[in-house]
Every structure is written in C-alpha cells, then in structure tokens.
User: Fold these one by one.
Assistant:
Number 1:
Amino acid sequence: MLDLIIMRSVHVLAIVIWIGGVCMVTTVLLPTVRHHFPACERVKIFHKIESRFATQARFVTLLAGISGFYMVWKMDIWNRFQHIEFWWMHAMFFIWLVFTTMLFILEPFVLDKKIENESQQNPDKVYTRLQCLHWVLLVISLITIIGAVMGSHGYTLF
Ligand code: HEM
C-alpha cells in the first residue's frame, strides 16, 4: 500500500515538473524569443535554452513512465485499456509515448539536424511550426491531467 502511495507521489511530481516545463516553454519562452530576436536567430537561441530543460524532461518522463507502469502492474488494472470510459489511461500512455519518442529518438537523431537545415531556408515557417507543435502537445497534456485526476478519483465523462 505504501509503495503505491509513494509511486503515485513520484508520478504526480514528475508530471508537475514535466508538463509545467512544457507550459513555460510554450507560453513564455517561445513567444519571448519570437518577439526579441530576428527570424534567422530564433531557432538557435530557443534550442540553446530549451536543451537544459530537455535533459530534465528526459529524466522526469522516465520517472512518470516507471511509476505509472508500476501502479498499473500493482493494481492489476491492465484491462482498463480495453474500455473507452478509461480514455484518460489511453491518453496518459499516448502523451508519454509521444514525448518519449521525441526526447529520446527523434530530437537527438532526426529533428535537430532537420530543423537546422530547414531553418536556414525558411526560419519563420520552422519557428511557427515549432510553436504550433508545443501548443498542441500542451493542450492535449492539460486535458489528460484533468481527465486523469477526475478518473482516478471515480469521475468519468461516459
Ligand atoms: C506510461 C505512461 C503512464 C502510465 C502507465 C500512467 C499510469 C497511471 C496510473 C495507473 C494512475 C493511477 C490511476 C488510479 O488511481 O486509478 C495514474 C494517475 C495519474 N496520472 Fe498517469 N500514467 C502515465 C502517464 C501520465 C502522463 C503523461 C500524465 C500527464 C499528462 C499523467 C497524469 C496522471 C495524473 C494527473 C494522475 C492522477 C493522480 C491522482 O490524482 O492521484 N500520467 N497514472
């Protein structure tokens, strides 16, 4: 029982740091860099600042995944993934998968080079795309958090 309480606390703490950081990057860092720097410098400057958060994000994403799967295993609730009323369980796994793929595979091995090349040709378009992507991920994450808190305390939309 105590292990579940500890894992739930770790899970929530990891989510706070992770999605809180995504919120800061999306609503503060990206627009500030857009307003204060010319298009050709934006991606580079954003990347320099964001790379410190990316390291934190990798660590907390890992913690969120470990604690999340531990709870699923310990409570033996794998069957929730078969029922639509537990859409927030699917949403949590989906968000985690998207960020894990981006932070551990796409960003270091594919995206960094691609963005650098593309931003030499059309920096404004690349930066706008970066902002849109962050907004989409942030909104889906926030909806998931609301659904997960309500769902794990017995409320569901269906
Ligand atoms: C591999 C990915 C994940 C797994 C396996 C997972 C699993 C779980 C489990 C089993 C619970 C407890 C459910 C219950 O008590 O009925 C939970 C709670 C929660 N999760 Fe996740 N989760 C994952 C990722 C995420 C992500 C990405 C977010 C945020 C975007 C998130 C946010 C939450 C929140 C807010 C709670 C509710 C905590 C509470 O109110 O007690 N989880 N998760």
Number 2:
Amino acid sequence: MTDTLRGYILCKVRNKRNILLGLIFSLFFYTFIDAKTVTYDINIDYKDINITGRKVKAMAVGGTIPAPTIRATEGDVLQVTFHNKMDVETSIHWHGILLPNAQDGVPYLTTMPIRPGKSLTYRYPIIQSGTYWYHSHTNLQEQRGVYGALVFYPKKEIFNNDQDHVVVLSDWIDENPQQVLANLKRDGDYYALKKGSVQSWDQVVANGWTAIRNRILGAWIRMGPMDISDISYDAFLSNGNKVHQLGTAKKGDRIRLRIINAAASSYFNVEFSGGNMEVISADGLNVQPFKTSRIKIAIAETYDVIVTIPDDRAYEFRATAEDGTGFSSTIIGEGPLVPAHKIPGPNLFRMKHGTQSMFGAPKSSVKMEMSKKTQMPNMKMNHTTHLEVNKSEYFQLKSHQSTVLSDENPIRVVRLDLTGNMERFVWSFNNKMLSEADKILIKKGENVRFELVNKTMMHHPLHLHGHFFRVLNGQGDYSPLKHTVNVPPMEKVIIEFYANEEKDWFFHCHNLYHMKAGMTRIVRYEGTQTDPALIEARKSNPNRHDNQWFFSQSINMSSNKTFGLFRPSNARNAFELEFDVNYSDEYDIETKYLRSLDRFTDIYFGGTIEKEGNSRSASEAVIGVRYVLPLLIESELEYGAEGLISLELASKLQLTERTAFIWEWKTTGKYKLELEYEISKKISLSANYDANFFGGVGLRVNL
Ligand SMILES: [Cu+2]
C-alpha cells in the first residue's frame, strides 16, 4: 500500500482461502465452506470540511464522513487495518459486534490505541448479521467524524427488496467538541440560548398554570428547568449531508433502509413521506415485523425498515432532532417532492416525564402481555413478570424466538441509578463517575440483570459492549435482544443477559458528553487477567477521562465597583476566588476550596479579607457548607475563626430569555442585587446594587 492513495480504501475485498482457518471455522459455523477473509485497509486523517459555510478541521476515516461502509457476510473473517495519519492517537470500536475482547477497540481497556503515524489491524470472525456501526472510542473524536456503517449480510437473506441502503444519521457542530464540553462544564444550560430553550419566567407564565405548577414543583424538588438536549447543533446529517439524494426508485419499489444513529448526543424522530415504514430489525437483529409511522431512534441504536415507494415521485425520509432544532433529509425517487411532516420540538414547559413510545403507533392499546407460564404462582425468578416494569417505550419490539434465559443459572442483580449534576455537567452511576467507581464484577455462567433507574431529567442511551441483552419490554418470553437501550427520564428499565464472555467490557451512556463526564462502568468477568501491555500502556494514558480540570472566569466592571469570580474545578473539587473592589480602595475578597459531596452539598474552607472605609483590612479563616435548598436556593452556612456563624442565601431567576435577576442575602446584613442582560454567552450588561458598594451599571465578561 502506498501513501499516494491515502484517504481512500486502498484494497477492497480479498478472497483468501486458508485451509487451516477454513477447517477451524467450519467446525465453528457448522459449514464445510472455507471462511472467506474480507480485508479492508483504511486511513484515518484530518479533513477540512465545510458544512455551515465555515471551514472546519474534522477527522475522516477513508477520506469521508461518514466513513466508508464496511460490508461482509456472516461466516467471513473480517480483517481491517487502520493507518492513523493524525498527530493524535485514535481507536476503532465495533458497535454491537460479538468479538474477542482484544478486538473491541476501547483504548487502554481492551485494545492498544492506534498511535499517531502507526497502524493497527483488527481481525475477527463474523458470527452475526445485521446493521451495525464503528466509531472512535478516543476522547470526543466521534463528534468530529470518526464513525461509519457496518453491514453484515446473513448467509441467506430472508427479505426481498429492490434496494438496500445505509442511512447514517449524525449531528454536527463547528465548535471544537472539547470547547463544547468546557462550556457545558461551566454551565449545563450553556446552549439553551442558542437553541431557544431558555425557560424564563415570562414564558412559564405565558404557558399557563400547568407550566407554572411544573416549574414550582420541579424547583421544590430541586430540579432545574426541563431540557431534552445539551447542545445546540449547527447541522444534522444524513450520510454526511443535510439533504442526501439516495438513488432513483420507481413506483412499487421496496427499499430497505438501514438506519444508524451515529450522532454524538442527538435523538431523532424519523418519518417517511410515502407512508408507514415496516420495522424488520432493531440493533441488527430481526424482530417480528410491524408497521409504524414514526420511530424515535436513540443515540447508537440501529433500525432496519422497509419502505414502499407509492408513486413515481420523490419521497422524503426525514430525521428530526428530538429537541426540534433541525433535521436531515434523505430523498428517495425522482420527480416532484413529497415532503415529510414537520415535527415540532416538545413544549418543555408542559412536558411530563411519562413514557413516550419509540414508535408512532397509539399507546393506549398496549398492555403488558405476559406469557401464561410467567403468570403462574410458581414463577421462576428470571421471568419478567416478577419485576415491576413500566410500560416500555420498546413495547412493539418482539423477538422471533424465545429469549428467556435458562433458569438453571445463578442470577446476579446489579442496580444502577443513573445520576447526574446538570448544573456542573457531571454524569454518573450511583453518584460515582468511572474514575471513582469499582468495576461491576460478574461471573461467567450467570444470568446478569441490570436494573437501571434514571434519576435525572434526561434520556440516557446505555450501551453494553460485546453482549446482547434482553430488554424487558412487556413481550415476555419474546423480549427483544439489543445492545443499546434508552432509559427515559425518571424511569426504570430492566435488562438481562447470559454472561458467556470473559475479561473487561465497557458499559456506558452513549451520549458522548455524558460518557466523557463519567457515566461509564467497566463490567469485569471474575478471574480476568489483564494483558501486561495494556497495564503498561495505562500508566501513560494521556486521556484524562472524566476528571479534567476546567476554568471559568467572569469579571464585571461596573461604575461602583469591579467584581468577579475565578473558578477552576474538576468533578469533585473547586477553587473559588470571588472579589468586590471599588475605586476608593475598599474591598471584599473570599477564597474557598470546595469539595463536592453530592449534587446538593459542598463543604469548604477558605478565608475572607475585607476593608471598609478608612479602617484596616480584616481577614478571617472560615469553614462552611454549601447546600441547595428547595426552590433551588443556594445556601451557605459558615463558621468564622472569630466565632461567628452566618447564613447566606442566593438564587438566580431567569426573567426573560436574556434577562436574569440575581440576589444574595447574608445574616450579617450584607446583600447584593443584580440585573443581568445577556448579549452573548460571553458578554452581559448589568445593573447592581449592594449594601457596601451601592449601585452601579457595568459590563460582565465571561472567559
Ligand atoms: Cu447520558
């Protein structure tokens, strides 16, 4: 292979008859045909792309975004060599694929990273068929373009179609993803202004009593305003384009679409303007076919559907981001366009956290269907009916065969609360990030059941590497097998699988930013021996996972004083320097080291220095607790070295989309009032009044 062809797949498919391999695989796959090795050779490199009118340095596999589709057939051996032409390391994970642990591609956990300038060959036998995908598992590279489709054909296709296409959905933002994460760490609602989802009080009131009640009840249990996405994207893409023409078609053609949600943090509602879609598989595996007008596809899921072209016209397959901020279009056929519905975003003010179906069919007809066997009093523990399961959003997915696990196996139940601190953008399981938590230990031969309880206001698409699990969705013995499951806000989902593997596997939220912020675990099989090369490599792992330091500074230059806040923080620790200084040499400075105990509680120590009028400056050491009270009022109970105890209360009220009122009151008699008008996320106008420094107007700059 030469460099002259860099950026493209150099060598497509090479048939290779290898007698020894053939013998081995014929034993494995009950066939006497030699396993064919399907070989790909692909570069990963930077690529300038222009999606919004601005040139941005992206990362591309094989020279394209999405990466070229890798195709092979069940029973083949897949061998793919990636050449990393970038100056940062990378990795490739095979999403939804059952393969030897060392091929899974989680850098430093299962597989060595692909170092800058180096190559890595992945090789594994294909023991499944269906629609899957592959992507980088390094830092935030997936957001920058390192993802592509994986299609494994069955040995014998059961569906007859006129066409078969991959539709890779994704989200795009010009801003550097690392900066996106830094912005979210500063303020979980950072992108609300850009995407128009600021829930100010004027809007709450305009939306009536339901909205007012939702907001007050929410604030009472210390939940911020509801939002269903974190980031405001610049574009949504279908096979790399905002609008994508998918070949020609004629009336009556049956077209199979292999839909892959490869977005970093977007859910999509997909609809076809030519009528209902027939869902034939989910997460790569065939299900009992059913028709629906709409599918909600969570991050990292795949669905295969068949659509029928009703007439000699152009039809739109539209994927609308769930937050309503945009969509991508795939056009099928030629002639006058029949557009798909416009799907508006949800009304966040009136939103209740109930089950929303993943599919468009009416929900009222659904009941939890239990098989007769499972309704008998002597129920086996591993049957679904013993468990409280909410009406699943996946209720229409039904497996072809029974997926019940053998009741001979011991059962291990793992309860995982999905937790988070939206304000500081920390996401976790059981209030612990990956870096703080123990591995989830399981044992080969067990039936492992995960009880997933979402205690946050967001959806989390959870993905387990190297396994398929049953989702207890009300279909009893025919519960579908998946590799990714959405857990809606404030709901509980139960999954279970037979532990038939070995070693370490990642289990994580597939929202890229949630994963990076800590919502990740390692599932370890008992007795795992880690490859010494990986142990050695981990010592110099340059990727700071969920515990990076971020810096936020804001300074306000007003006519009466200058005040500001400097705050470096990581997930659990923060330093704060807060100061007020006026022009007659009076000041009030507070420094603190804070340790976060949970979402609501920080403990701290620090010191204050104060100078008023002509008196000398006075300093004092303090310790205290910062605690979030109902109605989202922040309190600080502080004990000073001079023996005084004080209490401070503060909160921020968002009055309009850009105007906020901030108040602070302390038992010592100090108070501060500030009215802020946000021009951008960086610059605000402000008016303040203060017990010590009186009133003034000024400009706030956030850096
Ligand atoms: Cu998540």
